[in-house]
Amino acid sequence: MVSRVIPVEVFDLVIFGGTGDLARRKILPGLFRRFCAGQMPSGARIIGAARSDLDDAAYRDMIRDAIAEFGGEQACDDAHLSAFLEQLDYLKIDARGEEGWARLREIMSGEDRIEAYYFSVSPALFGEIAERLKKWGMADADARIVVEKPFGRNLETARDLNRTLATYFDEGQIYRIDHYLGKETVQNLMAVRFGNMLFEPLWNSQYIDHIQITVAETVGVGDRGEYYDKAGAMRDMVQNHLMQLLCLIAMEPPARFDPDAVRDEKLKVIRALDPVDPHHIVRGQYLARDGTHPSYRDAVGEPRSHTESFVALRARISNWRWAGTPFYLRTGKRMSARSSEITVVFKDTPHSIFGAEAGNHRNVLSIRLQPNEGITLGVTIKEPGPGGMRLIDVPLDMTFADALGEDGADQVDAYERLIMDVIRGNQTLFMRGDEVEAAWAWTDPIIEGWVTRNEVPKPYESGSDGPIDSGNMMRRDGREWRKVSP
Ligand code: NAD
After folding, report:
1. Residue 110 Cα, ligand 1 centroid: separation in angstroms?
2. Model confidence pLDDT, tens digit, residues 389-411
3. Which class does domain 181-476 fall in?
4. Which of 122, 178, 224, 356 is in the most buried spot, having the most CB atoms within 10 Å?
């Protein structure tokens, strides 16, 4: 199956933080893959802007190595790689001072083309860069800025940041990245919900018992310890990625697939969330494992840290569609497998005509974001063979790579899709300022409650699925977590 690639218009993309981890691991390898796919026009320019003292040649060498290390070089051949690197320039700039800004303006003041500025730097620099872009005459009405996470650390700081950015740019120019929204399956979730007659009539509390959203990682905090210990799983994962997934699964059908129609519906979901009952939240912190992995506290170098590396909670949405259907959210580090999955568990049939011995069977729709992106629907059928009516559950499997062939999932990474959306001017898969604030307004009281009660996270074994209390929370509701499977 051949995928259609439509080239974007000629653009200039300035990557502030062009030598950083994110730029080397995701942004530039992603752009190279789009180049190989024929989506990047030959006149496009990418300008890496950072503090290091490099010239163009040294920067191109750095990015050549990054592409070799972080994937992308297999997308095409050496000739393409050299051609791509030719479109790459470097500029030494100081986000906090004056160095480099006059030169950047000179570079950007050529012919009329799409201008995008990617803020791949510490959030502490977002405001300063926006201010300097304005001061140096680069905040034109059609310029776009791309802002990385974290977007604030609570409602107050997110509001401040929104206000600062709004001083220099309109909301329609601001692209707040949540890379989960760029995943193929996440968009497929909308296609499945709103492109089929089959699901929508059942998509409510009358037919759905509950929904689980799990984002499990096997890695620990790694070298992000200093940042992570000030954030924790709630800020790092729930407030953004898990809440975005919750919105997409729970929102009403927008009238059109356009940025504000979709984001209006997502916002309504966040605003309809009830405060979370403290008895329905479990926080955890991972322990050391067999001398191979340090404990969370050792990894962050804080022997008394109360920061959670795991959180599980029950959310409720108070509206007509969802009253009575709980949403269970769970995320953690050092869990048993790396897996991101949304599971929709339908209710039992109203009456089993096959008798008690046929057992209870429920339809389960699983939407897997990673690995092996795909959608599976569990249906109940008769077990083949003689001997009466025994029922079994079998999956109707639509793993994209199987269903659509090698090109089906097209291996388009979330970042490359999102960057191309920025160039196209499509904000559908980016968070709007009011959405981010509403998400903080929901998570802030939860975090404040932990601090007020001086709550200590429950320890859990590395390689497990979180603290025992997480399973107990489900069992009290008469339910079970789905197994975290790779
Ligand atoms: P990093 O520390 O690896 O890189 C920071 C970059 O900023 C470097 O290029 C550095 O030269 C530049 N920089 C620092 N101070 C500067 C200044 N005064 N003027 C100009 N440039 C300056 O950081 P990173 O991991 O690449 O993260 C960048 C952003 O992306 C952060 O907001 C981070 O939260 C976010 N993010 C990163 C990841 C990731 O996987 N690395 C994932 C999600 C979000």
Report:
1. 28
2. 888 889 888 776 666 665 544 56
3. alpha beta
4. 178
